[in-house]
Amino acid sequence: MQVLESIEKFYSSEKIVKFYSEQSLFPLEEILFKKYLTRKGTILDLCCGAGRASFPLSEMGFEVIGIDINEKLIKAAREKAVNYSNTSFILSDVEKVDFPENYFDYILVLHNSLEFIPGKKKRNNIIRKLNLCLKKDGVLITTFHSAYYPFHVARKLLKSNIKRQVAATTIRHGKPNWTDSEGMPPKGLRPWMAKIKWSYRSGETNNKAFLKKNFLQCNSIRNIHNPEMEHNDFFYKKDSLFYHLFTPWEIYRAFTGCGFKLHAVHGSREILAWDNPVKKYFCKLLIPFDYTFWIFKKK
Ligand SMILES: C[S@@+](CC[C@H](N)C(=O)[O-])C[C@H]1O[C@@H](n2cnc3c(N)ncnc32)[C@H](O)[C@@H]1O
Q1: Which band of pLDDT confidence, cut at 50, 70 and 90, is reported for residue 177?
Q2: Dihedral angle at the C-alpha atoms of 246, 255, 263, 185, nearest 10 degrees?
Q3: Which of 103, 131, 184, 269 has a Cα-to-Cα distance from 191 of 20 to 30 A?
Q4: Do residue 250 and residue 291 come from a single domain?
C-alpha cells in the first residue's frame, strides 16, 4: 500500500473522524499555548485533522487557517466552522500548497503529523516552506513521539533478533512513558498494557507467541515495500498506516537546517512536573524518550 493511500484510508474511518472532531486541546497543549502564544495573530494549523486545535484557538481570539489532505476530516472541520467567523480550512497535500511569505504569527504541527510525510527531502521542503511563511518574530510549535520511546526501542531489539529478555528488560527498567499527551495511557493501549504488566509478573515475556502478538506491531518497510524507504520508516501491521519515527537529533537537524533556531524543547513529563523544579529538572533528562513539544523561531 502506498503512503498517501494508507493515510487516506486510516484517517477516513468513521471512528477516527469522530475522534478528531470531538477532541479539543490536550491539557499539555493548553499549558504550552498559554506560555508561547502570547499575542493574538494568525495561526497556520498544519495537518489540522478536523480542527481539534483550530477551534479552541479561534475561541481564544486567534485567526486560524487549517490544512489537511483528508477530505472527510476537512469536511467535518468546515461543517463546524459555520459557527466560527475566524477559521478556514484548506483541503490539500501540504506539499502542494504555498502560503504568502512572512504571513503567520504562529505555525502548529501537532500530534504526529510530519511523521506521515515520507522521505527526508519532502519533509525538509515542507519545513522550508513553513519557515518562509512564518513572520520574523513568529513561533512554530510541533510535537513528536521519539524513536527512542522505550516501546519502539524494544520492538527494534526484538526485530533484530537480540535476545527477547533484553527487550523486556528495556521496557521494564526504562519505565516507559505509557501516557499520551493528557497524561493518560492511550485508550486503545490500556488493555494491552495491562497484559504486559501482568506478563512481567508471571514471567510470560519468554513466550514467543505473546511477544509476537504484542510487540511486533510494525513492519519495517525498508526492503519490503520500497527500497527507497528510510531508517525508522514503518507501516503499522494492524492498519498499514505509514509512519516515520524521528529521533530527537533528527528533529533538531531538520528544523535548524531549514532556517529555524531552537527556542525550547519540553517533554510531556517535564510539563506535568512544572510546579516542582527538582522533578522538572530530572524529567528533562528523559526528553529523548518522551513525547516532546518543540518550540522553534526563525533564525
Ligand atoms: C495524527 S493526525 C493529527 C491531526 C491534528 N494535527 C490534531 O492534532 O488533531 C495527522 C493528520 O495529518 C494529515 N496528513 C497526513 N499527511 C498529510 C499531507 N501530506 N498533507 C496534509 N495533511 C496530511 C492526516 O490527514 C491527519 O489528519
Answers
A1: very low
A2: -20
A3: 269
A4: yes
